[in-house]
Amino acid sequence: MGRDHDGGPPHHIGERPDLGSSPNIRRQIKALRVEWQLLIGTAMFFAITVSIYFFWSGEVSGSVMLFFTVLLGILPGSYLAFWSRRMQPRPEDRPDGTYADGTGAVGAFPDSSIWPFILGAGAAFSAVSLVFGYWTLVLGLTMVVSAVVGVILESRRGGTV
Prior knowledge:
The protein is mainly alpha-helical and 161 residues long. It has two domains: 23-102; 115-157. Helix content is 62%, strand content 0%. It contains five helices and no strands. Helix 2 runs antiparallel to helix 3 (60-84).
């Protein structure tokens, strides 16, 4: 058990304290959610950079690549902004959060498997087909499909296939 942020009644570990009673705490919690702000800020920086670069150099290919860099910041940044407004504050977002508040079930991790290696080798053979010809594409796609099927069967059975 721990004390609430305003010295109120104690709360149990894992139970969220009521944050609505103090607007100062609310302001601190919003200030601590910087993941999406960092990504959107990066996107804004590269948006300014791409506009200056395009009008200064007139080069299209570099501008397109910089535009995709802008998308690299906007896409995950907007996703994180969407969810940060709908989530409860995480223990690391709260000024009164403790290590005990963040503990819990971590999750289940799969056993070791050969299928990710085969999937990577199949992707490599597929990419090499641009240089060596279609026969490596056939080999690569066969490896990719067999790896996907192997992962699906392995995950359903719960063991090695």
